[in-house]
Every structure is written in C-alpha cells, then in structure tokens.
Amino acid sequence: MTVPLARRNLLSEKVRLAMSVSGVAFAVLLILIVLSLYRGWGGASDLFGDFPGDAWIVQEGTTDPFRSTSLLESGHEGAMTAVSGVEGVIPVFARRVAVGPASDGANALFMSMSVPPALLAGVSTDDPDTMRWLFPPRGAVVIQQVLADDLGVDVGDSITLLGTSLRIEAIQPGGTPLFALGYLHADDGERLLQADGFVNFYLVDLEEYALLSAVDALAQSVPGASVRTSEELALTVRAEVDRGFLPVVGALVAIGYVIGGAVVALTTYTSTIERARDFAVLKAVGASGPFVYRVVIKQSFIVASLGSGLGVVGAVGIATLVRRQVPEFVTDLRLADTVVVAASILVVAMLAAYVPVRRINRIDPAMVFRA
Questions:
Q1: Is the pTM value of this prediction over 0.90?
Q2: What is the per-residue pLDDT across 65-97, written as a single tens digit (0 to 9) for each?
Q3: How far apart are CA 34 and CA 253, in angstroms?
Q4: What are the residues whose beta carbons fall under 8 Å from the beta carbon of 353, sequence distance 6 or more?
Q5: What is the SS3 assignment for 329?
C-alpha cells in the first residue's frame, strides 16, 4: 500500500516530479562524467604493466618517460646481463615528436624496443593484443586511440613521422593528450629516434624476487644511471594525474552529491508537508509512525531511482558523443562507478527524507477535525 500512496503523491504534481528527477539525473551525470574523465587520464599509468620487463634503467634524475629526458650510453647490455638475476636487457628508444605538419600540434611519445631474439621468444603478456601493439612490423606504426582521433586517421592510413611515411598497423585503445604513445619496429625506431651512441632507456627482465638484490649492480653498470621499477614509474604518472585532477574531482563530486541530495530532500519535504493534512487523516484512522515513514521514504526512493537511471543513461551518451567530437576528452566510464554513484544517491535520498518524516510524525491527528 505504501508504494501506490507514495506514487500518487508524486504524480499529483507531475511538473515538480519531472523537475526533481531531472535535478537528480543532472547530479548523477555530473559525478559520472567527472569520475570517467579521471579514470581515463589515470589509465596512463597502467601502460607500464604492458612492457616486457621489471625495471627501467634511466638517466639519473629522470622522473618518467613523458615529462623528462633520459640519455644513456649504448653498449652496456653485456654488463647488465652479467648481473645475477637478469634474464635479458632491452634497449629502448623513445622521443616525443610531432606527427605530420608541426603546425597541427599533434604529438606523442614514440618508442621502439630492440628485443634480442632469445628474449623475445620468452616475452609474454596477459593481453595477446599487447604483443601486436608493442612490436609492429617494419614500416608500420601503432598509435593510441587519442592520437588517432586527433589526427582523424584509422588502421591502414599513413602518418608522417620525422619525414618518413609509416602505415598504421593498429590502434591501441586509450591514451591521453599528455601521455599519448606510439610504437615503432626496432629498426625504424633506431633509425628515426636514436641519438648516435645513446639509448633512452634499458628495460631489464629479471628473475622472480631478484629486483632488490640487482638494483645497485644494475645502476653501477651504466654511468649516470638509476633504476626505477615499472611500479614506481606508474605511481609517478598516477601522482601527476592525482595532483592535477583529484582536487577538481573531489569538489565536483561533492557538488554533485549536494545537488542530488538537495533536490531529493526538497521534493520529499514539499510534497510531504503540503499533504500534512492527508497524513494526519492516515494517523487518525490508525496509521502508525513507521507506516508514514515508509511512505515518505518510498517517495524519495522513487525520485532518486528515476533520476539515477536517467543520469546513467545520459552519462553514457554524453561521454561517447563528446569523446568523438573532442579527442582530448578522455573518458573511462566503468560499471563499478555507475553502481557506486547510483547507490550513493539512493542513500543520500533516504537520509534526506529524515527531516520531513520527523515533522510528519509530530502531526496531531486532531487537526483533521478542526474547522
């Protein structure tokens, strides 16, 4: 009985109901878009888990491949391979370069890895597509989706890199404007990216549990080098994203919850108080306080549920549409986030119903019989 009564109370003011549902939907949409934007940018740190190695040998002072330069003398593979626990060493060439005409402003960090044949046979990743992305054939390039969107190109098209035309072999999902990546064949990368006598990084594949014991020896094997694990580089990139986005994300998410809670609270309060006499009649004919409480809670639940559902649908549509039109708007809308946000809004709605419930429960049933 409580649901039909709550529904009738809401439907008696259809315009107000529509505005309330829209307000909640806007709050949910705002929260989800901000969270998906944060997830999209934060995903840049995940790429370090795709590379076939455990430790990076970088020039001392280098923070990460995207925001600092690393130049190391080439030819130290033998010294590092001799370190106990080292299974293989991969020279990595990397350089941030413009793609096509420099005036277009499109650029990315292009990398190539010269993997020894013996080590390549043992390279494996959890994702079979990763091998195809990291090691394209000669004359080909793999770029991330954000760069492909920016350039308006697709698989099979060609791009110009340092005066050389390369065919797009594949497009890797993800990427952000600040952390966009491209991959070249080892021969193309050495020819296009290498400074004579130098490499940018060494990627070292280690035996299990050998990292701690090998760090000092690896650093001493290359003059002016330091050792960074893949996890450390990922944390550095994540920290950069967090510093730039977390304050904004936190503020906007808080605003979204305040908006959603305020809308639900206002709708529940006004629709309940305006029917104070009706609730007094219910109490006069024997309705208990818990029954009245359930009616008010159901009203809040209906508004929050409709608004949350509409907000989720709107967030999916807007994220997809904007991503197509603005490649820099990198989003990653996750099912877990939608569930958590929708559930949170429902909890806020239940809490927001507490104030009108307290007032209704203080209504004197005798008011029904007053003139």
A1: no
A2: 777 778 888 888 888 888 888 888 888 888 888
A3: 7
A4: 264, 265, 268, 296, 297, 299, 300
A5: coil
